[in-house]
Inverse folding.
């Protein structure tokens, strides 16, 4: 039932609100004997952390993660790992108005309708701050994968932001980590930055499209029918704040293709099957082929903008909402490390599931 | 863990292979006292059933569903409902070659790599025949919703098929059930049909895009963070065979929008909040707003085509695959009733979850 | 949430009522490549089957199990296994009175209060016939264990029936399968039989105590804190109809012991640790030690007796209930194969869980 | 799969080790709008807290619980509630010997065999300190029950300790909270205390039997077949450290009864059905009758005693173990508030489950 839990064997439950004392993730099912310390997790949290450049919110959070359980002398023990991040930048203020007004595009109104009350401070539970906890959990997954599937690499990058589209012919894997946009094309960064500053000046925000690739995924991960690898990846990405669409491989464009063009032909290579293309995004029948697993998703523009939008109060009175404060003009940028974390968690989860049901490694031989 | 189970409180487990003796769904958690008989389920199975017109496969299956448990004197008892569909059209044949060859785009190779063996008859477990069981389970969900949320209506329709796009300005809700393509524009049917016959003559197949709308969904369904309504809908649709992308509301196009354009402004209406638009697809923060819930997904072209594609055998030898037999030139058509069934199941599930945690109906008042 | 599902990785969902067309179990998560056919399951169902001797009900059910999915050419495929048992001995009769009267000690009144309606035919879902489905699922678990842990043996036997107590000093493992009471003492059988026939003649019934032992359980199965091996065994046994108490190892008697007497001292043997005693019942901290896993449980006397008991009707009117028909004077006898099946399922489940989280086999070395 | 999670709709995951920085419980699925603050939880933690009298361990822990999330302005918001208890009395010491020796009757050896490593400080995850987290979670459940089922009362008490048996004819509900043994007979306290001090002087420990009663449980809670109320209660109690047996109602004694004696006859009372007795312990067919729900369980004597016991080291060498330090001579005493907490959690969970599937309140009418 697990409202706030993600995963099947490698599971994490996130907890906490934007402006409460702390937030975190309770990670259960991690294999024992995984080398793990706080610095290994902090690395990923720092990637997601706001306030690092002018393209993201200026909220300053240390986002320092503490491991409260499940690790002994630098190794996981197989018991639950509690990851806690204290909230330090909780500006003291009056939430009276915000608490009684529903910001368009935010969860204010739905939380109110569902629960009858809500924590209005910074969006409460629906704040994107929750994603810090996932990034921490994803760090645990990465540490476990480093031991169980050392060839595996997970990388996310932006492929579109508003009208800006990434030119796929210029794809440069090494450029991704070297710019604020996680853009695989160093030459395009200046244009994207200028575009985004212009959006900000217009008191607007803009959406984005992110792609996440997992290289070195063993064949055989996933399971019929409701535990397909792509099913879990779709849920993983859609659960991220502001995501409105998820694609695997060819994605929505598959609707326009013919079967002859879409088929990934199979050849025998030196180390096993090879494929003439990867329209499938590395997944057939819900199970990994051994090719790159490719997921893409769209993030809507942040609804917190300086341009006034019409809304109502809890009394039903009309009002106008202008969201001042420290907000990302494009929340998609910070979604990149979050999506990487979710990809890592899903793959580790399915690796453990596969090992549980079938045993280690792929089972059928070819050739 | 639940590999073949979908849902949280209203749960179903599907079982069965394409050419085994039977397939079905074990439905658990249905409310008691729901009026239910086989005819009510058969209605939806007949919508999905192949062999009804020249646009779908000519395989002839009665797809007659039997209720084996959980119903007494025409009412559900609250205990598990077993729905069984016997496979009647299992053409006797030699599967020797198929059993040793991996069809490109199919799950043959991944099932082999994962499990070491597979049922090759008609795709076994990975066959789209599995979706008949979901349609039956969806019929149970519809019956329960008819009593718990009588205003609710779920409807799916095609919005694209290969190069053919639906003209949204001509949307006609009543046209949908009156043509083989579930197309909301009667005037376009002839063109779509000609296009599809041409695809078939070219020995090819084609993808499709389907939209499913739920009208009359109560506000307040869904839950943070990993049980969001849109998260579950994304998983539901992605679990359908051949689906490669899922969108909620604005979907992937949200990446290109500005925040000012994307905001759904809120007004006070006579019966509660109203919205100036529905970019959100009826869901904010994972919880329904009371607007139409709008989901869209892409189905890849069937990989079973008469055009030869290169592949390998289980011995690693090169081969060519030509799939003869009775295959849909566009599997997307039959995905429409399947997607409706999944939408109905997700909504009923969240309605029961909401009632469990919060009690009946929306909790917060406005005005 | 899984109301009618048991297990974590190896899961089964039972369905069906006593007098419906069929009942069965949907088994999910079974490893692939397990040798399995219907005869292997029938073996265990025949152990549980009523009507075989004068000590159990004379209801005649073939209890013939059919495998409808998940097995191909004699091997499991890793997909769901549907096991169906048709109900053949449904005596046609009028249920009018039974449907309106609550039998003391039965679930009639609680099903009515909970659901508002119930299937009154033979107890419906609350009938002990449901256990046939578990026995079938347990047969699948045994088949998988035969390949994954060939040294493992699961055996159940009676240790008490009413005033009759088993003399533990006469324990004879080989006697168990050779008498109708699964009694590990051939010499006592005649006395037990005479005692039970006397109970029957008095128009009464009697309770029983059963012990189930698993030998050859690998060390390391189980997990903290809510997935302890003993926690799952307690749930497994308590879920069986009429069970009112469950013990592990020393059980309730542990309350009377001192810590010095209760400690199982540890010694180093040729093949690893050995223990001076087994008060713990083979489980420490929820995890198997490698010793025999010992579970004991009590079954209440069947409430279906010829002696009149006072009750009420659905209208609240007083009435007397006399249960005629074919009922076991001691339902505990047939609980033996059911409990064995549950033990097998729990152990396989934990073996897969352990393999998933930790990998194959015990991980820590001693010596 | 949920190794460290308990519950279905009202779920909590406990985390933390005996001597780590903190431990706690992540509670998910709590209804919104429940009045809750830390003082309400502290009340129950103080009941369980060690070091309060000479009959329990002298370890001094404040066991101060903090609510880190899920509560806003004194009310639950429906989002996860993180409860954290910092460990303050972690005596600094050398764990070298303990880390390499397996204490008989403890989980040292099984954790080592399973995981290959373990946190040896105070038993790590297998320490009874984990139960503090449950008591906190149980406090949340009690707060929710106070609003949803105000007539409900949960009370635990000891019924046996070693050779001391409680005289049921002297049962005094009001005495329970007035003595250190939670004994429902004030006159017996002095004898029990003398007995226990004698056990301690003998360098031994002793087991105990505890009974927990829930009064005012609505009829209709529970569900077939694997979510029976008694099944979940058995799992709940067996998951508590050192518990070796669980009974419902008549319990193991049901094995010795005849059906005529065991039947709880039903009569029509002014407010609905009444029963002539309660052998069933308030549960029929896994569903509550509305009578008192009665659970009993046995706790083994603590294995940490001053009397030397033989064991081995991680190298397989023989050794003797004497456990010095601050240990309870009867851990059963402190199990009382833990069991009350588990009972409260199970009942709330089933109350929400029932409301989800069936709606508010019992559904069938009588009379």
């Amino acid at each position: 039932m697990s409202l706030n839990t993600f995963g099947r064997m490698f599971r994490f439950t996130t907890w906490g609100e934007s402006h409460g004392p702390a937030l975190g993730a309770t990670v259960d099912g991690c294999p024992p004997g995984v080398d793990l310390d706080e610095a290994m997790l902090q690395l990923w949290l720092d990637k997601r952390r706001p306030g690092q450049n002018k393209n993201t919110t200026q909220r300053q959070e240390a986002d320092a993660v503490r491991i409260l359980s499940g690790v002994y002398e630098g190794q996981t023990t197989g018991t639950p790992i509690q990851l806690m991040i204290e909230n330090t930048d909780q500006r003291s203020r009056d939430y009276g108005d915000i608490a009684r007004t529903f910001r368009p595009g935010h969860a204010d109104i739905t939380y109110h309708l569902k629960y009858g009350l809500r924590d209005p401070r910074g969006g409460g539970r629906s704040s994107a701050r929750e994603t810090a906890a996932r990034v921490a959990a994803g760090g645990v997954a990465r540490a476990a994968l480093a031991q169980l599937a050392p060839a595996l690499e997970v990388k996310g990058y932006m492929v579109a932001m508003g009208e800006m589209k990434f030119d796929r012919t210029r794809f440069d894997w090494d450029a991704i980590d070297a710019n604020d946009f996680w853009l695989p094309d160093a030459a395009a960064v200046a244009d994207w930055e200028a575009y985004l500053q212009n959006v900000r000046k217009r008191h607007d925000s803009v959406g984005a499209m992110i792609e996440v690739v997992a290289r070195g995924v063993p064949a055989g991960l996933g399971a019929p029918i409701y535990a397909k690898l792509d099913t879990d990846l779709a849920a993983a990405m859609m659960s991220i704040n502001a995501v409105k669409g998820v694609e695997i491989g060819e994605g929505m464009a598959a609707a326009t293709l013919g079967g002859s063009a879409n088929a990934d032909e199979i050849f025998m290579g030196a180390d096993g099957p090879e494929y003439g293309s990867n329209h499938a995004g590395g997944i057939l029948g819900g199970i990994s082929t051994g090719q790159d697993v490719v997921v893409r998703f769209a993030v809507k523009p942040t609804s917190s903008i300086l341009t006034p939008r019409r809304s109502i109060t809890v009394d039903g009175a009309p009002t106008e909402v202008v969201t001042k404060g420290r907000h990302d003009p494009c929340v998609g940028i910070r979604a990149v490390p979050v999506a990487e974390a979710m990809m890592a968690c899903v793959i580790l989860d399915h690796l453990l599931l596969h090992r549980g049901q079938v045993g280690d490694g792929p089972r059928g031989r070819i050739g």
Observations:
- The radius of gyration of chain D is 21 Å.
- DSSP finds eight helices and 18 strands in chain D.
- Helices of chain D lie at 38-48, 96-100, 108-115, 130-148, 189-201, 229-238, 259-262, 332-357.
